[in-house]
Amino acid sequence: FTDIFNLSLTLGIMPFSFKRSTIVPVPKKPRPSDLNDYRSVALTSLVMKCFEKLVRDFFTSSLPASMDPLHKKQEQHYQSVRISGTTVERVDSFRYLGVHISQDLSWSHNTNSLAKKALQHLYHLRRLRDFRLPSKVLRNFYTCTIKSILTGNITVWFGNSTKQDRQALQRVVRSAERITHTELPDLQTIYYKRCQTKARRIVKDLTHPNNRLFSLL
Question: Any coiled-coil ranges, and where (predicted)?
Fold first, then answer.
């Protein structure tokens, strides 16, 4: 195998038998009834997988420490985006209507900001509890302040947030439950209900641009 590997690198040719693969249809659902219900998966030989790893390690190990493995000889320079003659500044994240939009389209920065802001209001909730206010008053304070922070524009970001980010926000809700001694709705349930409400509004509004994307069951 070592001789084949070295000869392949020298000639720049991959053995044809290594490139053969078997295509296996994998069902997408328990009871497939159509060709679209299958996902094609290519099963490559074990020798080829080992060969790919060796080639990758061979090339990356020969790169100097100052060069990135994804470095290109000629970097592409993209033109700046201009609106009304003004160049749009490129930033890592941008806050719009209370939502932090990151350049990589992840929501970790947004959820971290929400969790930090909500935790600050937990202090005031604890102070109200220390004054021995009834649970109903504490719950109303939570709904008006902390819940409104955690669920602001939730239909935009919650569905694509990571499990860790959701758990961080849910921990704030559990802390509020212990303070108020009441059961509070979890964020997942609130997200589902608001998505359903939004979908119903779109279905009823024939002028909405996304109306044609919905059909009643």
Answer: none
Supply 202's token pair.
Answer: 């779109």
- In this structure, the dihedral spanned by the alpha carbons of residues 79, 83, 89 and 94, taken in order and rounded to 10 degrees, is -130
Q: What does DSSP assign to residue 211?
A: G
CB atoms within 10 A of CB 172: 23
Give the Cα separation of 157 and 167 in Å (integer).
14
DSSP state of 79: P
> Number of C-alpha atoms within 13 angstroms, CB side, residue 61?
6
| pLDDT, tens digit, 9 for 90 and up, residues 46-105 | 778 887 887 778 777 777 666 665 666 665 666 778 888 888 888 889 998 889 999 888
CB 184, CB 145: distance < 8 Å: no
pTM over 0.70: no
Is the dihedral angle over the CA atoms 42, 43, 44, 50 positive or is it negative? positive
